[in-house]
Amino acid sequence: MHVAITGASSGIGASLARELARHGHSLTLVARRQDRLRAVADEIAPAASGAKVRVVPWDLSDVKAAAGWVDAAEDALGPIDVLVSSAGAARRSPPDELTPEKWRAAMDAKFFAYINV
């Protein structure tokens, strides 16, 4: 089974990747930071039970870019059977420092990343 996980560089996404790799599922790990994705992939590789792990650094807040990683993932590992959308890190700001730009950046990271995929 091919499982694609967005937000796979840390938190819930990385934890899920570790568990699914132990069960032999092929994985596409997606997040913005290639170094953190690579670290997760390197960590789970020994326990991957023959599963293939592909790392795709991608910014899912960009609507045009979001669709591109799906094509690349499916070209490499076949059709995606399961998509787990756990991307969504946003910078925190004290309430009195929130601006429309900061709200938009938070919505791009937390909400539109799901919609764009």
What key phrases describe this protein's structure?
alpha/beta; 117 residues; four-stranded parallel beta sheet
Structural account:
The longest helix has 17 residues, at 100-116. This protein has helices at 11-22, 34-44, 63-77, 100-116, and strands at residues 2-6, 26-31, 53-57, 82-85. With 117 residues, it is an alpha/beta fold. A four-stranded parallel sheet has the order 3-2-1-4, sandwiched between helices. The two termini are 19 Å apart.
| Share of helical residues | 40-55%
| Category from helices, strands and their pairing | alpha/beta
Identify the overall geometry: globular
Number of helices: 4
Uncertain regions spanning at least 5 consecutive residues: none
Tell me the β content.
15-25%
Instruction: Give Rg in angstroms.
Output: 15 Å
Tell me the major beta sheet: 4 strands, parallel
Order of helices and strands: EHEHEHEH
Overall average pLDDT? 86
Compute the separation of the termini in Å: 19 Å
Q: Please give the number of β-strands.
A: 4
Kindly report the spatial arrangement of strands forming the biggest sheet. Answer: 3-2-1-4
Outline of this structure?
With 117 residues, the protein is of the alpha/beta class. Helix content is 47%, strand content 17%.
Layout: helices, strands, pairs:
Elements: E1 2-6, H1 11-22, E2 26-31, H2 34-44, E3 53-57, H3 63-77, E4 82-85, H4 100-116
Parallel strand pairs: 1-2, 1-4, 2-3
